[in-house]
Fold Methylthioribose-1-phosphate isomerase.
Amino acid sequence: MKLKTKTMEWSGDSLKLLDQRKLPFIEEYVECKTHEEVAHAIKEMIVRGAPAIGVTAAFGYVLGLRDYKTGSLTDWMKQVKETLARTRPTAVNLFWALNRMEKVFFENVDRENLFEILENEALKMAYEDIEVNKAIGKNGAQLIKDGSTILTHCNAGALATVDYGTALGVIRAAMESGKRIRVFADETRPYLQGARLTVWELMKDGIEVYVITDNMAGWLMKKGLIDAVVVGADRIALNGDTANKIGTYSLAVLAKRNNIPFYVAAPVSTIDPTIKSGEEIPIEERRPEEVTHCGGNRIAPEGVKVLNPAFDVTENTLITAIITEKGVIRPPFEENIKKILGV
Ligand code: MRU
């Protein structure tokens, strides 16, 4: 079995990833033939977005088995998992996907067709992701009124998943159900996922989109130009606190102040049942050049000190609802999340 979407292609012996660093100007694929190349692609953000990172790592794990040469296979696969896990710390889907692959590995370690078994699991995960996003879209579309303008942050679209997207999946599903929707996309400094990726994929689909700078959102809300905020998530704690791209927290505060619903759209696999509150979510710190430079050009004086947390945490009290494939979760979040997870 094979897989081919815009974001990724699995041919049976390599994984091709759309190089998201080069969008929107160049559409080019990077071919990963080893698990190390896959780890590099995740770390360097050739591929990004929580669900896409998870599925990519799963294919990396499959390639890791093929990279095995001698010695203990079990030790080798532990090392493969470690290499893939050490790439990005915040999106829990990465660890969720690797744990799922490892479980299948241990259950079938003596089987001759172990490669096919692991490959099938990664493919299953990839196809499931598309189905899950469509279900998130369907559940979320019911919350969106005809004629709405939706603000989104970062890119939680087809590019951040195997296909269709989570937050952008809600927008797509609302439109497929006949509603007229307009999108405001935050440019999302410093990495510009909004300006470069969200705008690119929505324009390709013919969806009306305006790019705005991050600091415009508050004013546009105050002027009554935004009806709902819909964002994705990288990790959701048991109490509903949500880690997502830096800037999400500010939007949630602004939305509360302006009485605008703030929705998080994410698969259940983004909920981390081992984490009680947002305080415990590890936040990735990325390199200073992402802040001191824009489009390859330096914009701040050389030698300046830099902070660059890639994510922030929005506390549950600022979230109207979490839209998952299993339904819309509303407060009290802890109680309702536990119900959905069955824990
Ligand atoms: O640093 P990135 O681009 O991987 O961050 C992506 C986000 O924050 C997304 O909103 C999140 O992963 C959800 S993607 C469906």
About this structure: The radius of gyration is 20 Å.
